[in-house]
Specification:
- The structure is a single chain.
- The protein has about 250 residues and is α/β, with parallel strands linked by helices.
- Helices cover about 30% and strands about 15% of the residues.
- Strands 9-2-1-10 form a four-stranded parallel sheet, covered by helices on one side. A two-stranded antiparallel ribbon has the order 3-4.
- The termini are far apart.
- The model has no long low-confidence stretch (mean pLDDT about 90).
Length: about 250
């Protein structure tokens, strides 16, 4: 079969691209290096408890774009989950991101929104917050000291001058009611989409698909055989433990 496009990677981006092309009248071949679709958003059901586990770390769908929200809801409904994150520092729990809730509890003050900027402009305050809540985590994630990391990485951390403790600003968010796997299966369920799993994409495939548009969503340094070195991202080490309690910590992430 002649294809109009090849999509390498069947994660959320690849599945979206494939579906949009198919609905526009194109024929698409989707190549997935792993044995199942979903990419890093792939889930599995724990046979012992029946709990759905996000295999490669938790993923919360969130957007402020109504067009994106309308598109994804064609394939699933969402459960209304709102993401709230806690940080455990020296035995005390604080809400992240950085907000009035964290600052007032951490410093034992009662700041108003208009006072936050001046308060955090003092180095002793900003340094204390960074060292308590961001230095260790950032170092662990990147495998190097924060001073060696591009400042843009740190600036991605949300900062608020309110008591809003939702981690994301996006008001449209949640987790698919019937799981992410069902979303990807439905997105790829189109007569103009063909899927091959256990099929990694490499530069050698470009000749095979000459004249066909290629959309690649895998690690860019791996695609080029690391000839320009490794990009400085790191992954996680997952450790699974099952506890005989209904709710261990009261929120999904600490």
């Amino acid at each position: 079969m002649k294809y109009d496009a090849v999509v390498a990677g069947a994660g959320i981006w690849g599945c979206t691209v494939a579906r949009r092309i198919a609905e526009a009248g194109g024929k698409v071949l989707v190549l997935e290096a792993r044995g199942a679709v979903g990419g890093n958003v792939r889930c599995e059901t724990d046979p012992e408890t029946g709990i759905e586990i996000h295999t490669y770390g938790s993923h919360i769908f969130h957007t402020s774009d109504s067009e994106v929200w309308d598109f994804i809801r064609r394939f699933t409904e969402f459960n209304g989950y709102q993401h709230k994150v806690l940080a455990d520092y020296r035995g005390k729990l604080y809400y992240l991101p950085l907000s009035l809730a964290l600052l007032n509890k951490f410093f034992g003050v009662e700041l108003k929104p208009s006072e936050v900027a001046a308060f955090m402009a003092e180095e002793k305050h900003s340094s204390a917050v960074f060292d308590a809540f961001f230095r260790g985590y950032t170092s662990k994630q990147w495998g190097r000291s924060p001073e060696e990391i591009d400042p843009s990485v740190i600036r991605r951390v949300p900062v608020r001058t309110t008591y809003d403790v939702n981690y994301f600003n996006d008001y449209m968010q949640g987790i698919p009611s019937d799981g992410y796997n069902a979303v990807f299966d439905r997105m790829l369920d189109h007569p103009a989409i063909a899927l091959e799993v256990n099929r990694p994409f490499s530069l050698a495939d470009i000749d095979e698909f000459k004249g066909v548009k290629i959309y690649y969503s895998g690690p860019i340094d791996r695609l080029f055989g690391y000839r320009f070195g490794h990009l400085p991202w790191r992954s996680l080490r997952f450790e699974r433990e099952t506890l005989d309690v209904k709710d261990f910590q009261g929120t999904s992430v600490v």
